[in-house]
Amino acid sequence: MSGLFRSRLAKGFDDRAARFHTSVAEDLRIFEDDIDGTEAHDIMLHEQGVIPLDALRLILSALEEIRAEWRQGEAEVGPEFEDIHEYIEARVIGKVGVEAGGMMHTGRSRNDQVMVDVRLRVREDLLEAAERVLDLVAALMDQAERHSETLMMLYTHGQHAQVGTFAHYLTAYADALLRDFQRLMECYARVNRNPLGAGPAGGTSFDIDRGRTAELLGFDGLVENSIDATSGRDWAVEAAAVCAILMSGLSRAAADLITWSTAEFGYVELADEYASSSSILPQKKNPSTLELIRGKAGEASGALAELLTMVKGVSSGYYQDLQGTKPPLWRCLDAVNASLEVMAGVVSTLSVNEERMREVAEGSPAVAVDLAEGLVEAGGLSFREAYRLVAALAKEALDGGLGLRDLKPADVAEASLRVLGKRIEVDEAFIEDATDPRSSLLRRRSRGSPNPREAERMIVERRRRLKEHMALLEGRRSAVEAAKERLRKAVEGYLSG
Amino acid sequence: MSGLFRSRLAKGFDDRAARFHTSVAEDLRIFEDDIDGTEAHDIMLHEQGVIPLDALRLILSALEEIRAEWRQGEAEVGPEFEDIHEYIEARVIGKVGVEAGGMMHTGRSRNDQVMVDVRLRVREDLLEAAERVLDLVAALMDQAERHSETLMMLYTHGQHAQVGTFAHYLTAYADALLRDFQRLMECYARVNRNPLGAGPAGGTSFDIDRGRTAELLGFDGLVENSIDATSGRDWAVEAAAVCAILMSGLSRAAADLITWSTAEFGYVELADEYASSSSILPQKKNPSTLELIRGKAGEASGALAELLTMVKGVSSGYYQDLQGTKPPLWRCLDAVNASLEVMAGVVSTLSVNEERMREVAEGSPAVAVDLAEGLVEAGGLSFREAYRLVAALAKEALDGGLGLRDLKPADVAEASLRVLGKRIEVDEAFIEDATDPRSSLLRRRSRGSPNPREAERMIVERRRRLKEHMALLEGRRSAVEAAKERLRKAVEGYLSG
Amino acid sequence: MSGLFRSRLAKGFDDRAARFHTSVAEDLRIFEDDIDGTEAHDIMLHEQGVIPLDALRLILSALEEIRAEWRQGEAEVGPEFEDIHEYIEARVIGKVGVEAGGMMHTGRSRNDQVMVDVRLRVREDLLEAAERVLDLVAALMDQAERHSETLMMLYTHGQHAQVGTFAHYLTAYADALLRDFQRLMECYARVNRNPLGAGPAGGTSFDIDRGRTAELLGFDGLVENSIDATSGRDWAVEAAAVCAILMSGLSRAAADLITWSTAEFGYVELADEYASSSSILPQKKNPSTLELIRGKAGEASGALAELLTMVKGVSSGYYQDLQGTKPPLWRCLDAVNASLEVMAGVVSTLSVNEERMREVAEGSPAVAVDLAEGLVEAGGLSFREAYRLVAALAKEALDGGLGLRDLKPADVAEASLRVLGKRIEVDEAFIEDATDPRSSLLRRRSRGSPNPREAERMIVERRRRLKEHMALLEGRRSAVEAAKERLRKAVEGYLSG
Amino acid sequence: MSGLFRSRLAKGFDDRAARFHTSVAEDLRIFEDDIDGTEAHDIMLHEQGVIPLDALRLILSALEEIRAEWRQGEAEVGPEFEDIHEYIEARVIGKVGVEAGGMMHTGRSRNDQVMVDVRLRVREDLLEAAERVLDLVAALMDQAERHSETLMMLYTHGQHAQVGTFAHYLTAYADALLRDFQRLMECYARVNRNPLGAGPAGGTSFDIDRGRTAELLGFDGLVENSIDATSGRDWAVEAAAVCAILMSGLSRAAADLITWSTAEFGYVELADEYASSSSILPQKKNPSTLELIRGKAGEASGALAELLTMVKGVSSGYYQDLQGTKPPLWRCLDAVNASLEVMAGVVSTLSVNEERMREVAEGSPAVAVDLAEGLVEAGGLSFREAYRLVAALAKEALDGGLGLRDLKPADVAEASLRVLGKRIEVDEAFIEDATDPRSSLLRRRSRGSPNPREAERMIVERRRRLKEHMALLEGRRSAVEAAKERLRKAVEGYLSG
Description:
The structure is a homotetramer of 497-residue chains. With 497 residues, the first copy, chain A, is mainly alpha-helical. Chain A has helices spanning 15-21, 24-27, 31-47, 53-71, 84-101, 110-146, 166-191, 210-217, 226-231, 234-260, 288-311, 326-349, 354-362, 368-379, 383-399, 409-420, 428-434, 437-443, 452-496; strands spanning 151-156, 159-165, 268-269, 351-352. In chain A, α6 packs parallel to α12 and α10 packs antiparallel against α11. Chain A is elongated and about 100 Å long. The first copy, chain A, starts with 14 loop residues before the first helix and ends with a helix. The mean pLDDT of chain A is 94. Chains in contact: A-B, A-C, A-D, B-C, B-D, C-D. The interface between B and D is large, with 48 and 48 residues.
């Protein structure tokens, strides 16, 4: 270790301890965030009269040099540094000396510094995720529009349940994703707050202005209490939880599409760009993209479990345990963003075998519930009576290798007498209509049902919501961009001034 | 199994399969919710002309009888029932016959029925948790008020970091809890929506009014898409995640208080009502209440992991896997509510040993950062220079068995020359002031610091927020109560009418 | 709380704290184990001269009375007791007075007492699980024997991979379960050791004989170090891990069978005794038993996560956090035992649609790999060349709506020239043979392949292993039973003596 | 993607899908294992007459060149490759052409290939972990030897429980680690088996010899069934579980040492090489190494949860979900190995403040249990009576600011009369002896107690076991090394032949 902060200790780290300690690998993700945070802090320090103009200029110029080195891939941050914070400070001091460079962290600790960096980064990742969620919803709605009349079996327990449409199925996932969007934005509101100025745990005697750094960094307010600001990680666990919930939903959609890609179902086929083949089985076309997405639900859940176990029972005030919260956070945010992106591609390019879907629907006993509902009205039965009657009819038909469409009025009359003790008379037209999947679909009247009219209404409504959400997201993004611009201009002002 | 729904199958359940299947134990929690949901559904059915008045009356009277049996502990729901839904329907039909009783689930499946029940119940649990959060915040603020000047060491890495106050510590947890409150209410908004009317997966052809059942049950809107309504469990996982995050925070506060209850720290002592003793060690007074709370963080995390694993990759549409989502949900909501209640008791009755806290603060080298900050101003040093100087002084003092308060101006002058190559002159008054924990505390100027003036301001502000939140919560509760009253009156109207 | 152990504290538990504290509910499972443990301890104490004969007799008679009350359902253990240990001691003292009854826990603490009880119980549960594993393996082998020639598609990525047999599939799960058996028995060896005599944390000055209690209780040795004996929970976490791994395997087999129960696959049908129907869809036959098993994989994983989170970072020596380790342990052991039992029933009673399986196999392009392997020999190609050639042939055939069986020698010749730059000549017989699923199966030569001869050999070998394992298990059980008998006789001896 | 295996598909991967798919990053860890596995496979193929000598030589020479490139850091494996398997095959074909190079994977799929590689690697990691466990046990025993008479308080609930020794504490962790060693070796036995020859799922028609590749690669047997060999992941989950259990134990030891490093306890001090300081608090010496270890318990638990969630419910046969099992496996094996290494360093270099430990022990009421035990004998009381008497005495003493050592015979006589209704007479010598921590320690007679004689016996016995385990481990290592040597020689033989 370079030892910038080890004046108190007689010996350097043991080599193995140094490798064990360093967080340099996971810190690379917050390299520029760290520079931004320091620039904002130091500008504020100067504005408040804590550090002089010339020192500020030296620090800012050194930081901008380091940023340039980083962008050109020239920053060499080895494990001899505990973290990038030590690296950057050592490098600034190396460039401009300890008199000026030594001022850069006046009134500040690594504890609030790291919290700033991580929050700045997670903020970006959450906004990206929110945008990708909306992109995926848009892709779902595009497919849904094409398939609002595409008959498809709805399943429960993997068994034929009711006739529906592919559009209706897609809309269900759009709705779940819109809740994910809400959760992302609500989490964002707790993440995008300024911890800077909390000191190691109890603030500082320098006359700092926390509101000013919040403004320069685009934070929407403070994490006020200094212990809370440095020690709290609930917001990070929440971000992971939001990711895990989102991925859990995606894993279910992926499972559906994987099953529907089997030869036996044959409902959908992934575009070649999203499928893989086999090293030994030349005929294979594997929906491996979806399999990976399903697996990544485990990655996000695992990251969440890691965070919860890590944080559990850790006393207040920063402990090094919490250093370990960064990697799982990066991991689950990455899993979410990559999965959403790929899923949108899969959905947009998916081939749908409408004919196969219709064929299954038409041969299915799933119209039984429609028949039962019809019998309530036609036969004056209570639903449970109609249910019993249809169950008996279904059992006999299936045992005889027939479908419900093959029923005759006499079957109904005879079975009702046997099962319910009363004779129910219906005509052939009734049976034909009640067991036709398309007319059964058109008879659905409840709000939110797969009736194509309802599906179309819902698509329109989701598109409207998409627009609203996009605007909300745009607003958040602009606020962040405006702050970045403000900071950049301030830095340039001092450097050129 | 009683076999109400097994008309299709030739044989009853195998005994072992029946015991394996039944969810009766976990369903008891939603017994009355199930009755409420059915009453609302059937009233709507009647209003819509789907079922006649006399049938409605019979059903409602049977349901009210069953409710009364339940309240008197007379409902015997054995494992021969798959669940309480089957029990209640069988009992209604037993009481009023299948012609009327068989109408009670017209246009409805167990899938949307269960979702109604669970959402009604989780809604109550979330409101209770939200209220207990506010109670605990209130208890924290009461203690904080008493201790806004109680010097206490702030720790990082378990080591003395900075001087603070006990009030400041308590406020940190109040702030974390206020975020838990937000999460609970945001989750509530997604939970308190009406899934009723979704049918098994694809709605119904009966002319139902989903808005009306929402109104009668106090839901704030619909879970519109019928697949989403029956198949989605993100809201349940979210509720568990909110619980796990909350418990994770409590576990850290519990860990602090457990450590501070040791003889070695001696900062606090639990009231006898919240401590236990030993079966073999007569002198023991154990902070076991806090230990249980810390352990329950594991319970909530485990419940969340259970839900995420369970839901992962399950295809859309109801699968019996999802039956297993109820027990972990109950478990973590119970863990949260019990823990919050007991924690508020612990906090309210806690003895604080102010003298011991002050004694530790006064003997501590934690004023080093204050000394360093003072030297920046007094000695014209950059912070990193001052840090190095103080680190050297601290090392020497500690090695010599002395405290920082024992430093002499000459020590500073000599060490600065050696370490920084420049001689820094300060007087005794400077050292005395800079190393006095109380004046160091009073010099803290940053917003959110433990400076007593800042602590007092924050307490006032948190009390204001408490009031606002209480009002918000009250609003939610009133809306729910009003709906219950509406439903009760409607039922009574039909029964007496 | 009854307050047996609260002499030191001035006040009783707060009511809420008492409810929060009590572990009575989860303790009922170890009620008799607790009696056994105490009897063994007290007999040893008497043998060592620590307690007199008359006291021993009084204690033993009281304990046997309490055991009888318990068996008759007359023990009323309310939440006023911290746990059943307090209940039983209070009841013994109530029956025989504190002079004699007060001796029952001489040289012993609740910490080692609870560990004895839980280990005795988990030992039984592990043996039960081990036995059920072997039962399930036997059921798998019975089915496998019937299906060693039943052609079935093997899938990778859900796509047709290679032709296999149903027996081969079943054997794969038998093999996995035999590893579960090993893990259960290895865990058993760590569980079945005696912690008694460890005292609260540091032993006792009474002249106890830990080997003797081990003998009376059937433990295979000591958990020697007294801190380790009372504070370690690795064995409990391990038991949960073994359960979670086992359930994870079952969940995969369940997923296969659920998919194969769909109308679209139609490979298998559960017996009615293991299926459920629907409350609204009369035609349904749901493989709900398997869905529950799959879900219970979440239950076991969650229990493991709970334990790991709970135990993490808890300082050494008993902490009340660890009280919470019992419920997840019970939960996952129950999940395993119930799931194994039901799974064996499902497997034994499963209908297999051999015709449908064969039909799918015969129409499948999965013989492509067999064709490629054949071309290596027949055409003198390297495998990668043959692979490329077959991939091209497969693509063309599939694009043209044909199967591989429709290939002509000319197609091969032409494609090989185009793809590999060399002309490969094969005759019709070659193609016919290479693309026939049954002959392809018979050509498999590798050890462990689905070649029926290999399958039969493997079944015989597994049956042999089953017998060995059964004997091993029987040995463990007898040792435990012998110890129980020893203890019972000793108790009777004292009571009648 | 390079597309080696995509002949069947018309289009390449979408760019985003390619980045999403590639496992190149996590595969680097198995680069050489992959080469070893292929060499063994191809040598066997040649020995069996499946591939000719000249092709074998070309392949082996290409593989050795690639190995050399890799070792010199010259292998450039970009995300255009799905994985390193594709990279290596493409590179071999590039070097020696498809006629020879295309033979390298004859009779083999990526599914069994990857399983070989991962098992070879995990085997090494497990052996390394086992060795580090023994190293840490040795370090614990060395410290224990120095401290077999070092009085130290034993805690339960964080409160003083009984007097013990530091050696006794250290031995408790040694014993737990020896169980970890067992688990590692038992897991090893399931890991170190040969899956090669399983083909994609159902074996191959080439005349391969699976026993021969097992021999060349040092596997102790086969994973026989071809579905089990390619699809099972229980052994990987088990490895993670073993890691998580081990880390859970380390986290508890770390928590103890962190608490004991506080100024308030002052029992131990980490060597500077294992401590860190602060960027702002110059006086700090943080036990951050231990904090990281504690945090890494979360990393291992999270990896296990990830694996369990990922694997849950995935149908049999390889699915791409399972690709995701590698990273968590690497992560938790690394966490274990790094943590064990650093922990051994911490333990070896730890400063123990014996004086502070003794001082706490001497001032403690923890001798109460010793006093109670003494009174059983001296006063003829039952233990519960003695407990009550001492509890009353302890309460009075503590309330009066006194210790138990200040008790007078009259106090005992008076309290016994009041509490028990009988007057117990003891003399001053009895009290002095009973309340002296050192004599209390020497009176402990139970096996496994902290009595120094017992501690010394246990240390000797653990050292003996260490030796045995070391020999066992050495045996495993030699077998692996011998196989490696065998393979290397065989390769050299062909290349030079």
